[in-house]
Fold:
Amino acid sequence: MVTEIQLIGVNKEYKGDGTVTDALKDIHLNFHQQEFTAIVGPSGSGKSTLLNLIGTLDKPSSGKILYNKEEIMNKGANKIADFRFSNIGFIFQQFHLLPTLTALENVLSPLFSRRVSFNKKERAQEVLKRVGLANKMDALPSQLSGGEQQRVAIARAIVHKPSWLLADEPTGNLDTETGKRIYELLKELNEQDGCSVLFVTHDPNLAANANRIITIKDGTVISDECQGGGT
Ligand SMILES: Nc1ncnc2c1ncn2[C@@H]1O[C@H](COP(=O)(O)OP(=O)(O)OP(=O)(O)O)[C@@H](O)[C@H]1O
Structure:
């Protein structure tokens, strides 16, 4: 299990149409197991880029990211995918559910073609119950509210038992009250199930309740504050 993630001198540039965007510049950060961290900053400051790099969805242009002191992105594509499957769950603002699959099938989808030590269907049912959707397993995404869809997406993100949950504006598409409940669920997964959580948010109230707040501006970390225990 990955207990520590270290970013050492990480840069990310995007090249295209003759322009180069320096999305992240010389980032040095350490993340530890069971932290509950908010990443904040203005639009375009590099928050999603940071999350994608930590989640092995993309490679730094230079610098290193170490997982328990090991570099993963220099391995082959299959090894990287296996690593991601074992360790990381993603949650997005837009939910990204497959519209023709039921809630249960959506939650099962990361397990297709994967060999696991548990019963897939039982595990999917268990995580749907865990997020409060025991009575919606057979519903299609179109039959669910935004908050319920995000719960399905969270169940899908944790079905393979990752130790790190990376959430890119998980409440960005939800009204304040629903967003708060989704936030509470992430907090519960952190405190009760031991998931490390890194989440990007524009909501200062949600960020204020995290244990650690990292502020990014123009691709650099301008502050990194730990606070005693959150709520
Ligand atoms: N695939 C890409 N190709 C080119 N430029 C990109 C790409 N992805 C992001 N960028 C640029 O990199 C910078 C950082 O983008 P990023 O999405 O990480 O910011 P963000 O802080 O998450 O923004 P927001 O809060 O608006 O989602 C921006 O200038 C953006 O335009």
Notes: The chain has one domain: 33-60+77-226. The longest strand covers residues 19-32.
